[in-house]
Amino acid sequence: MDEFRDVEHVSYGSSIMESIKGVVAGLLLFLAAFVVLWKTEGCEDLSKLARRAKVLRADKSDSPVDKSADGQLVSLSGRLETSEHVTDPRFLREGRYIRLDRVVEMYAWRESKQTETKTELGGGKKRVTTYRYEMVWTASPTDSSGFKHTLGHFNPPKRVRDRSFYAEVGMIGPYRLTPKTIALPPSTPIKLDAAKVHLSGGARLVEQRYIFLGEGTPKAPQVGDVRIQLRGVPRGLEVTAFAKLEGNRLAPYRFKEQTLYRVFLGDRETALGTMKTEHNRMIWFGRIAGFLMMWIGLSLFFGPINAVLDVIPFLGEAGRFIVAVAMFVVAFLLSVVTSLVAIIAHNIWILIGVLVLGLIGLFALRLARKRNARA
């Protein structure tokens, strides 16, 4: 590992100017947080839509096609099959796969940096940035021309590219689908052996897991060496698909701003449970992201005050701590209120219920005032 340190001194005046610029960034973050929270609560739960899909029988290839479901959202469970042979022409001989993925990692330099800022007496700051360079296996090697310290840290282009190969047609019972366009289950690693793979140009098979290609060795690789893992979605999996039926073909079903056109592992209830879990994770990710954006944005509003207090470092640190705690509470309350309002606004029945309760409350208040006036 190579390590370099860059030291920068920031004057008191420059520090105050940076904090003023931070106010603008804070305002943008604060406003964007409302958009994120609103959009998050408005996301459609596709598992509810999928539960209303018409269930088709697809356990046999000679089962009759349900023509009454044409144009509707349908769900069907059965074996995902194809009569085709899918191959990676460079590395893998043909096999019975629905999709085949070539995943390439390159041994390359990676840059990481860490900045430590120390406030000095008088309000100036000392920033020490540590740059570290290490060689790692990565599927996305960094363009080394963007490194801070490029000497001795050069990444060549990937000599082998990632690729995916698909069967032209897949079948679930009598129903056809297009593997290249429909969302398929995740691919899994293929156990490799000499009978399955093409080895040429110095390529070597390593532990039945991947193919190594380069100037070094699997245990002592050099920068630019690659290792190739082959992953596949095999035929014969028990799956459940959700899509629109067009004749005997499955097509994308569009609902509002979302599309349902997907194959899941397992039976219908398992697929619905997977969709529900994914939706809940996405909702909570959006809520947490919106809250953090609001908290950071509000904290940046007070940057100039803290920068002025930095003339005595202790006061600046104390001010930042107080602001962080106070803005945490404010951001939390604002996030909760925004999410509740968004939930009500996006759900027509909840909205109607709130309006009815509001009208009942107003009516009861008027009655109470009339009684008090008579008394």
SSE layout:
Layout lengths: L1 E9 L1 H30 L4 H6 L2 E4 L15 E9 L4 E3 L3 E4 L1 E23 L5 E14 L24 E4 L3 E3 L2 E3 L10 E2 L14 E3 L3 E4 L12 E9 L2 E10 L2 E3 L1 E3 L2 E3 L1 E4 L2 H34 L1 H7 L3 H34 L1 H27 L1
Parallel strand pairs: 2-3
Antiparallel strand pairs: 1-7, 3-9, 3-15, 4-5, 6-7, 6-8, 6-14, 9-10, 11-14, 12-13, 13-14, 15-16, 15-19, 17-18
Describe it.
With 375 residues, the chain is α+β, with helices and mostly antiparallel strands. It folds into two domains: 10-43 and 283-374, no CATH class; 52-265, no CATH class. 37% of the residues lie in helices and 31% in strands. The protein contains six helices and 19 strands. Strands 1, 6, 7, 8, 11, 12, 13 and 14 form an eight-stranded antiparallel beta sheet that branches. Strands 2, 3, 9, 10, 15, 16 and 19 form a seven-stranded mixed beta sheet that branches. The longest helix has 34 residues, at 268-301. The mean pLDDT is 87.
Top keywords for this entry?
eight-stranded antiparallel β-sheet; flat; about 375 residues; alpha+beta
Q: Can you give me a brief rundown of this structure?
A:
The chain has 375 residues and is α+β, with helices and mostly antiparallel strands.
